[in-house]
Write a structure and sequence with these properties.
528 residues, 7-stranded mixed beta sheet
């Protein structure tokens, strides 16, 4: 009897495909798909498809009909008929194709089915189970792959990651006979416990309603014998659009407090401790426990990295004929102290102008030199006017040149001081200048206010950048606190601060003070 029934079914199935192909004119692949998917309703749905196809394509034949554009709607329509209508199509049998698709869409939207699966059978390994005895509720599964087309279809994202994929799913009852299975979160977690992504549908940030299902993941242990990590989740390091990932800081204050007591290791590091402090969950600001300044050392030929306005003043030819000439900038020249061939304020002044700025002490010294010279050279008459007396002994002693050199030297020194102080003022934009000479510059950089001005995302990014640097340069002899401050400083110099500009006004001219000029004159007269 059973054999006769099975044979009847085979004949019936063969008859439907024959009708779909021979009488309705569909291609064999389309007919087989409709028969396999819709069974007894295959001829009914085929007529709907053909009517729509011929309406859109007058003069064509059904054999050219393709289901590629309808496949998703056809699956949704079948769910609607099986579950929503309990297999009874009497209320929709006269609908055209698009009316049928609209009806199934409204039903799916009403139940919020989305890309859920009806009467789904879970075959993936369950790693956390929150379902009740009837099998309804949420659970986590290990998809055991880095690419899941199924998860892609369910969640509306690529379903692909560099690490193994996990999915938070649920079963809910939608009728006496049917259940709906849906995915809610997809996580990418490496073997060493690094969460690289944890996103909701269409790469959205997971809703807070799912936090109670995420939190237990932190208490899972890593069962991989080849992994060095103890816990299933050790850290978060987003690889794509971190703002749409679940982050620990999305949790409520109460959840954070509990998690910190259970897994304090998750909150290691400057950023995490700082966040806990800002939320009032710990009493000590971690930045108060570290030195918030560092000494920046700058080579003489590197000043232009921090100050704008340098220019090349000379080039040194290389010893190697094929080598490049080394360019010497103005900043390096200022630090060397040797700017006399670069900044020239040399003039020949009228003797009367020079004498007008002399003090009585220097005038008396000059008279002593004149009288001494006259005695040594048997000069009988010396003019009583100082200017004339100087000129009368010019053949024997060049007092005028000494006075002229003193004035020019005074101007040169004033010019050097101006250039030096201007450059120093530019460098003081960053902090206190502790050293500034031909050995380089040392600036003490205060960073506390700068760090506190950063937003949370900026600070997190800088700390991650700093941690990456530590991982890739473990041999650095600098203290970690200094390396972090240098990372923040580099961020500010590259993205926030505008370089101070070295600039001397075109209208500026050195001023030789009365005392400075006379001091120099006194020294030079002593050498004559």
């Amino acid at each position: 009897m059973k054999l006769i029934k099975n044979l009847a079914n085979l004949i019936s199935e063969g008859s439907k495909i024959k009708i779909l192909v021979d009488k309705l004119g569909l291609s064999n692949p389309v007919a087989e798909y409709l028969d396999k998917t819709y069974g007894k309703l295959s001829i009914w749905i085929a007529n709907k498809l053909i009517d729509n196809y011929l309406f859109d394509n007058p003069g064509q034949i059904p054999a050219f009909l393709s289901l590629s554009r309808y496949r998703e709607d056809l699956v949704g329509l079948l769910d609607y008929i099986r579950v929503g209508l309990n297999g009874n199509i009497s209320s929709i049998k006269d609908y055209n194709l698009y009316q049928l698709f609209d009806a199934q869409k409204k039903w799916h939207d009403q139940l919020q089915i989305g890309s859920g699966k009806i009467n789904y059978e879970e075959t993936n390994k369950v790693i956390l189970d929150f379902r009740n005895p009837d099998g309804l509720g949420y659970y986590w599964v290990d998809l055991d792959t880095t690419y899941s087309p199924e998860e892609c279809d369910r969640m509306g994202h690529c379903g692909r990651a560099s690490e193994n994929l996990y999915s938070l799913r649920s079963f809910e009852k939608i009728s006496d006979k049917f259940t709906l299975n849906k995915s809610h979160i997809t996580a990418s977690i490496s073997d060493d416990g690094t969460v690289t992504q944890m996103k909701g549908p269409k790469n959205s940030k997971p809703s807070a309603q799912f936090h109670k299902y995420i939190l237990p993941l932190f208490q899972l242990k890593n069962v991989d014998p080849d992994s060095d990590s103890i816990n299933f989740i050790e850290r978060f390091r987003s690889t794509y659009r971190p703002e749409t990932d679940f982050q620990i800081w999305d949790l409520s204050k109460e959840d954070l407090m509990n998690l910190n007591s259970l897994r304090p290791d998750l909150f290691d590091g400057l950023y995490n401790r700082y966040k806990l402090f800002k939320l009032g969950l710990i009493e000590v600001n971690p930045f108060d426990q570290m030195q918030m300044w560092f000494d920046l050392k700058i080579d003489t030929d590197d000043i232009d990295r921090y100050v704008d306005g340098d220019w090349v003043v000379r080039q040194i030819k290389p010893k190697d004929p094929y080598g490049r000439a080394r360019k010497i900038g103005m900043f390096e020249t200022i630090l060397s102290g040797d700017i006399w061939d670069v900044i020239e304020y040399y003039e020949t002044y009228e003797l009367s102008d020079l004498l007008a700025d002399l003090n009585d002490i220097n005038k008396n010294k000059i008279w002593d030199l004149i009288n001494e010279t006259a005695n040594e050279n048997s000069l009988e008459e010396i003019p009583t006017d100082l200017e004339e007396a100087i000129e009368s002994v010019e053949e024997f002693i060049d007092i005028k040149q000494a006075l002229n050199d003193a004035r020019n030297n005074c101007y040169q020194n004033e010019a050097y001081d101006k250039y030096y102080e201007t450059l120093k003022s530019c460098l003081e934009f960053y902090g206190d200048v502790l050293q500034m000479n031909d050995e380089g510059v040392v600036i003490r950089i205060p960073m506390k206010d700068n760090i506190e001005s950063l937003g949370d995302l900026e600070l997190e990014e800088l700390i991650n950048q700093f941690m990456d640097g530590i991982e890739h340069s473990p041999a650095s002899k600098k203290p970690e606190s200094q390396q972090f401050l240098e990372t923040v400083f580099d961020y500010f110099t590259e993205n926030v601060w505008r370089q101070p500009k070295f600039q001397i006004s075109d209208y500026w001219y050195p001023d030789c003070s009365y005392d400075t000029f006379n001091s120099d004159v006194s020294d030079r007269l002593g050498e004559l």
